């Protein structure tokens, strides 16, 4: 006997896909097939490869085919909350990709080709089964936000922590060897966050004077241990409601 088949899922026709195209806020074309009960990548949408945004989130898709490379105009790709165990190498051909959400899947590895996404600004790979992330992600020089929460990571590569434009990193609920290592990961991002919060040109004279005064106060506290009573919160990086990794299967979106 062969392997047991998974759920059949909903069949998406070209007509259904065309009716799911919307105009995004910036005038681009968005193909929204989220929450459609899809179990396999619908090949019919390859005829709609000129869209700017593709949303296949909250389905039961197990594999993304290499034909994803046909979507050369994609700036925004949302695959969160599926059953993905791997990504095709062809993902690296999507040179215009700005946003990539892979949260809440079953990824155990990431293809080296992700480093080719030179225009990527936001990457969410939280809530997967990753034990490590490739140091080659340090090549994503435009990256400003990255979600790494709820994986099996024990360390974060220096090449990622020191990305030049990185402002936000969520590394919560990973099994770092000790709390000091986790603090080290977060502290480096805290420093980056401070550097990019406000630019002088955006402040009026009185506000600039106030900020300078606060900066002087902070400088006097350089040798003091910073307070950890308030944790950073980055709502744009999807975070699960539960704080217990052991219970993640109970609230994993299926």
Nutshell version of this structure?
This protein is an alpha/beta fold and 254 residues long. It contains 5 helices and 8 strands.
Main sheet: strand order: 1-2-3-4-5-6-7-8
Radius of gyration: 21 Å
Total helices: the number is 5
CATH arch. level architecture of the domain at 14-170:
Alpha-Beta Horseshoe
Provide keyphrases for this structure.
254 residues; alpha/beta; 8-stranded mixed beta sheet; 5 helices; 8 strands; 10% strand; globular; LRC18 protein
Can you tell me about this structure?
The chain is α/β, with parallel strands linked by helices and 254 residues long. It has a domain of 157 residues: Alpha-Beta Horseshoe (Leucine-rich repeat, LRR (right-handed beta-alpha superhelix)), CATH 3.80.10.10. It is 19% helix and 10% strand. It has five helices and eight strands; from the N terminus they run H-E-E-E-E-E-E-E-H-E-H-H-H. It has an eight-stranded mixed beta sheet with strand order 1-2-3-4-5-6-7-8. Strand 1 and strand 2 form a beta hairpin. The longest helix is centred in the C-terminal third of the chain and has 18 residues. The C terminus is likely disordered. Pfam families: LRR_14. Keywords: Leucine-rich repeat, Repeat. This is LRC18 protein. InterPro entries: Leu-rich_rpt (IPR001611), Leu-rich_rpt_typical-subtyp (IPR003591), LRR_dom_sf (IPR032675), LRR_domain-containing (IPR050216), LRR_R13L4/SHOC2-like (IPR055414).
Secondary-structure blueprint:
Elements: H1 14-19, E1 21-23, E2 29-32, E3 53-55, E4 76-78, E5 99-101, E6 122-124, E7 145-147, H2 158-161, E8 168-170, H3 179-196, H4 205-220, H5 248-251
Parallel strand pairs: 2-3, 3-4, 4-5, 5-6, 6-7, 7-8
Antiparallel strand pairs: 1-2
């Amino acid at each position: 006997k062969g392997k047991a088949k998974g759920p059949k899922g909903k069949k998406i026709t070209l007509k259904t896909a065309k009716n799911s195209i919307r105009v995004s806020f910036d005038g681009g074309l968005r193909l929204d097939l989220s929450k459609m009960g899809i179990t396999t990548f619908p090949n019919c949408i390859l005829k709609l490869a000129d869209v700017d945004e593709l949303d296949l989130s909250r389905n039961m898709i197990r594999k993304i085919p290499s034909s994803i490379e046909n979507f050369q105009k994609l700036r925004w790709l949302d695959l969160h909350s599926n059953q993905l165990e791997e990504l095709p190498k062809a993902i690296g051909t999507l040179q215009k990709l700005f946003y990539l959400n892979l949260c809440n899947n079953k990824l155990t590895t990431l293809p080296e080709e992700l480093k080719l996404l030179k225009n990527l600004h936001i990457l969410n790979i939280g809530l997967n089964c990753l034990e490590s992330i490739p140091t080659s992600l340090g090549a994503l020089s435009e990256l400003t936000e990255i979600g790494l929460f709820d994986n099996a990571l024990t360390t974060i590569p220096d090449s990622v922590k020191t990305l030049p434009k990185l402002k936000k990193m969520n590394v919560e609920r990973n099994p770092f060897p000790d709390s000091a290592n986790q603090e080290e990961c977060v502290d480096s991002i805290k420093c980056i966050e401070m550097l990019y919060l406000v630019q002088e040109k955006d402040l009026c004279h009185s506000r600039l004077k106030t900020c300078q005064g606060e900066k002087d106060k902070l400088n006097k506290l350089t040798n003091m241990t910073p307070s950890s009573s308030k944790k950073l919160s980055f709502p744009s990086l999807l975070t699960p409601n539960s704080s217990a990794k052991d219970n993640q299967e109970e609230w994993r979106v299926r």
